[in-house]
Amino acid sequence: MEQLETKLSIRRAQFDEASIVLSLWQMSARWLNSKGIYQWRPEYFNLDKVIKFMNNGSDVYLAELNNEFVGTYILTWSDPFIWKELDNLESGYIHKFAVNRDYQGFRIGSFLLKSAEEQIKLKRKTLIRLDCMADNIRLNQYYKDNGFNFIRRINGEGWSANLYEKK
């Protein structure tokens, strides 16, 4: 696995790579939908959404392995919509975490989470936060397995999410 880590390159995405980020989101959405999980839908994503993140102060990252893009994530520095009164300036928030399914089993996701945590700490944030759909049992367990602690469940109109954080 150390060999994979040395070949995996994770860096900030450039504006001309927005379509690659979009493709990874849509690929993940199609895979989720094929499993009967509809937290993401391919048609929900578009190039304007990617560019909006790139322009609003968020940090968009891409992971590359052997000249192929294998994952992406976004870091935001506030999330009052999901975290409500718990939103604070001491936290970094991981969003739109996606891994190319062709690389399942390579632990790309764990490397991406580790990279996100390092980037958040470099910004001198003390808490690393993320959320996921409450009914996605496998993803909830994945975040727990990666050291995130369950904070609480929130309910929106037609959806529920679980909040996780790590120090």
Question: Mind explaining what this structure looks like?
Answer:
The chain is an alpha+beta fold. Helix content is 36%, strand content 31%. The chain has helices spanning 2-7, 18-34, 47-55, 80-83, 108-122, 137-145; strands at residues 9-12, 59-65, 68-76, 91-99, 127-133, 149-156, 159-166. A seven-stranded mixed sheet has the order 1-2-3-4-5-7-6. The longest helix has 17 residues, at 18-34. The mean pLDDT is 93.
Strand content: 25-35%
* Helix proportion: 25-40%
Question: Mean pLDDT, nearest integer?
Answer: 93
Distance N terminus to C terminus? 25 Å
Write a concise synopsis of the structure shown:
The chain is of the alpha+beta class and 167 residues long. It has helices at residues 2-7, 18-34, 47-55, 80-83, 108-122, 137-145; strands at 9-12, 59-65, 68-76, 91-99, 127-133, 149-156, 159-166.
Topology:
Elements: H1 2-7, E1 9-12, H2 18-34, H3 47-55, E2 59-65, E3 68-76, H4 80-83, E4 91-99, H5 108-122, E5 127-133, H6 137-145, E6 149-156, E7 159-166
Task: Note the main attributes of this structure.
167 residues, alpha+beta
